[in-house]
Predict the 3D structure of the following.
Amino acid sequence: MEETNQNSQTFLDFNSDILKPNNENDLQEIIKYCYKKDLPIEIVGAGTKNQIGKKLQCAKILDMSNISGILEYKPEELYITVKAGTPVKTVQDELKKNNQYLAFEPINFSELFKTDSNEGTIGGTLSCNFSGSRRFKVGSARDHILGFKGYNGKGEKIKSGGTVVKNVTGYDLSKLVTGSFGTLLVLSEITLKVLPLQTDTKTIIVSGLALEHSLGIMVSAIASSNDPSGVVFYPANFRNNFVFNDLTHPGSITAIRVEGTKTSTEQRINNLIEDLSLIDKNITVLDSIQSEIFWEDTRNLKVFSKNQKNILRAVIPASETINLISRLKTFHPTYFIDWGGSLVWLELDYLSNQKIDQIRKRVLDIGGYLTVIKSPENLKSSSEIFTIDPIKFRISQGLKKSFDPKRIFNPGKMYTGI
Amino acid sequence: MTTLKMPKVDRKILKDKDQIVKDIYSFTNRKNVLFEREELKPYETDGLTAYKQTPMLVVLPETTQEVSKILSYCNRRKIKVVPRGAGTGLAGSALPLADCILLGLGKFNKILEKDYENRCVVAQPGVTNLAITHAVQDKGFYYAPDPSSQIACSIGGNVAENSGGVHSLKYGTTTNNILGIEIVLMDGTITRVGGKVFDSPGYDLLGLITGSEGLLCVITEVTVKILKKPGTVKAILLGFPTIEDGGNCVTKIISEGIIPSGMEMMDKVLLEATNNFSKAGYPLDAEGMLIVELDGTKSEVNELINKVAEIAKQNKCSSVKISKSDEERLKFWSGRKAAFPACGEMAPDYYCVDGTIPRGKLAKVLKEIRELSKKYKLPVANAFHAGDGNLHPIIMFDANDKKSLEKTEKFGADILKLCVKFGGVLSGEHGIGVEKRELMCEMFNNNDIQQQISIKNSLDPSSLLNPGKVYPILRKCAEEGRLHIHGRDKSKFSDIPRF
């Protein structure tokens, strides 16, 4: 474990474009300096998700990678406190020693954006709030943050939450800063809930189902007491350019994951096969190791690893998935479906502002929201990346002002004017 | 009772009461506006009955549009508004102000939609927590957070207080179990946050509003997640010769990778009190007892419950009893659920504290509470949601003896300070309200509190929505009261389980 106090002397050169604090004193000095001088700052962890959101042109870059290290890990209390710039991998490796993990499966975007092969930092993961296939069962990153310390736009240190799961002591700012893309404050310390690793994982793969049939199975699986922890659909076209383990049956893939004790996973797999009438289908049951590979590939968006194009993310009510896919046919997207039908990842060869608007409208019409994950820079600057309505924009502006009155943190990263 | 400083009363508003009533008549049905003294009486307190204040008016709107018009009007006229659900809150978050309109959401009492495909229920805020589960249980679904007052507390109030229950470790609290809300801001703006989808684009307003105790907006609709009932549920009763042994067992169970759906500890005082009251069959030779509940598939539950029994034996447990039927499991819980009335049998008055501590600190905290009990010469019984660290000491006293009440309030404040000292927080599930307002500076410094207040200002610049709650008015830590139930028969909702 790293030292909790870095006593390195500060040699801050405020003239440099990249400001890299070595400790919290540096960090606070930098923010106070930028506040005083009205200098906008782009906050960067490992840079793996830097391309999501609008491109910033800030006077300074705040590189958080030296604010790193595990401060406190209490396996029996199910929490870990780390500095914001700590690599996700460092945390996961430490947790693994005690058979624990971050249950929300932080998404690794490094394959998609061709950044260095790492998983990013904890601060970046929380700031973006993208979570993996277990979302419908355990929640997302925002459900696993217990507390934080950070600096607001005036350079004042503030905190919220704590290390316990049950806490109603003031506004839950941990939730608010999660997913705020660094526009409200600079996180310095984060306490996360951790959970015991499940002793066994199994995955049923059903091959060759049509989308409609697959979705019926996905929804039924989640709505059963068999408690699946991942339900995903890959259409057949992915089989051409991406090999899933050593699956031999052709066609689309419907995958259902169960986790627990060995006796439990066996019983639940058998229940699912029976309840969902899968016995006469092309099914394969993946064991723990095979399952891990499959879900790791899903978590890392590996099907898009050859992508040079555009990636959109639509979160919708599961009941509307077929409707959405059919309404998007004119755009010829490649897609796969996660979260048991509630999350659709879309890949499009060609995208324009008009197309984004049209797709966003179709997603909004069915009660969902759309985020542009990857698109050419010229398009990003002229279109909305995140979904927002005028009322929420006004509320968000007020919140931004309450944390960062001079708009020095990642200004415009999420929305123009915020 | 300790006097409580509240925001300054606006005499001009009180003088204008007749005109205000007339104006409100144009927004809602006349019968929804209460202003006679006897009509206002039932609304003068919430579950924290030690504090009482008659509001200027009570308005019981029936639609979101009406709420919007009323708030917009109050915003223009600078009239304070206190929102109220079922009024079962234990921290005084719905305590009226003398010059306020108490906005009761009781008429928002309908379940609007049961959507099994998206596994959610859309309900108006006045629907009770338990009514949601009742509405979907025929299809095998339920709503997970289960505060003990679930028979009476409203889902809107649950969102405002981020209510928990005994299953929070495995299933989370309200904030982890809702998908969307419709809200009205103080200026009358109506908007929806979230929906039937996970997370939301932009800032997590749902997360901010949940647990904000009615200070940021009025909630007019809630969409909750529902879950399929687990196939099997079993409980095990474990007796321990010392609280320390019980605490060690809790730590060991979690270290072994088991996440029980519920894990409750009771100390000897409470064991004796509840066993006399409900005959739940608790081990009376034990200094501490754990109820551990597991749910899941049959084979998994059987496997894990035996594992828990093994762990308990290795941690010096003195008795083990596994439920053989659902009836027996419920009987195990019956004593625990009767903790309040059982304490009521033992003393004229009792006083419940709500704080959270790291699980591993239980033995140390209870030891200090016992020392405080000796210092204040007041008996205390302890109930502990061991799964999530939520501690509920129950102080027994006699309110007719003024000194006894004062001592009790000091004792309660000392316990909460202990929770913070050991790395915990001031409230696990009851909220801050007026009850713990002045203790906030035990946990937060001025920067922290000012940041939170500036969020409030951004949504309610004139501070008209539920002012005087959560954040200290005085800039010092006063030692004010905690939940004080005066005489079980005299207290409001005395038949509702409280924690």
